[in-house]
């Protein structure tokens, strides 16, 4: 009797195993190589097909059986999101890990850090900056190209000042008036005032705030700015009282690792949304290895220890057609540079101050290649059966490979899965100096030890 996978159910084969993606239920099943052969009609086994029918994954068919292909995403050209990095270099804080290398101007002049010398070199006097009218034009062009969501970010975006005294909230208001349906300001919160919060609320703008620790002195050590914790907490309070949609985010690093549990608990008490603490990405000043959290904390907060995937129709189409995060997104800096991601300052793909239009930058082959980059091009992931349900971060992967692998090819450094053996939790993917990916098994004992304390199983879910 001929069988086939039901509509919306797909088999993705990896190096040794396969994954059945059921977009009808959202479940992902890990299956072995023999099951792959049966489902792909390379060998016969009606008993196995019968099991799949019972599980609601397959059906008998009157016409000829066949493998259904994942539907590609239709909308791969549209601009969907812009990070408007309205202030790139300047900040009123000087966080030790800043991805943009931002800091107060006075620091740059007075402190004479080695990184400041570099900044001076980059920020040459003749370097053209976006004027207020350039930002307005860009926002309108992006809107006309279909973009409806944007984030105003820096440096510290509240330091933005147009040539005629225009403020950040003037830019936010313009985005709202244009018809952007989601506008967010990402700030350290220290320059907020009750009046600004009131206007933010009236505009319907969202806010995201960085809070590094529940402990004031730890937070201030991260920001290298005494008194910053009190100001950030005050802003959070004002925003909450005004019921402004708010998220509070925490980067996990060496400096705050010991207070990370308390910080997470504080956020729960405050009832503010935010992602899981995110281990520091090696970008900007964050490339300093001394800032990285201890491996125990990386395991606890950052590693993929077991398959935890869902197979939604949109996700599977998206991840098999373009990059899981970068597709449809750009960053524009205060110098007009266009980047694929806010964390990709070394990957300039164009400049809106010199290009004839934003649209022409979006059509640059280099950006198209990034937008359309699936895990089929990533080392190791290309051989993994989870590649169309697994999230990816290119700046993180490239940064972790320390120059030994490319932006689009570096393996994902937080994955403990080995698609060549089917094991979870036995190592991590790294790149050697010759550019080859290897599974570093020397970390297995520590990964397993921490995983045990988290009561996590690191064994794959196997349906066959
Ligand atoms: S990161 Fe790559 S290797 Fe790891 S589960 Fe995802 S797709 Fe597979
Ligand atoms: S690519 Fe990475 S760093 Fe950039 S937005 Fe996505 S997850 Fe964040």
From TrEMBL:
PROSITE patterns in the cross-refs: RADICAL_SAM
PANTHER family associated with the record: RADICAL SAM DOMAIN PROTEIN, TUNGSTEN-CONTAINING ALDEHYDE FERREDOXIN OXIDOREDUCTASE COFACTOR MODIFYING PROTEIN
Keyword list, A-Z: Iron, Iron-sulfur, Metal-binding, S-adenosyl-L-methionine
UniProt KW rRNA-binding keyword: no
Domain annotation Radical SAM core: ranges: 77-314
UniProt protein name: Radical SAM protein
Keyword ATP-binding in annotation: no
Pfam families tied to this protein: Radical_SAM (PF04055)
GO molecular function: catalytic activity; iron-sulfur cluster binding; metal ion binding
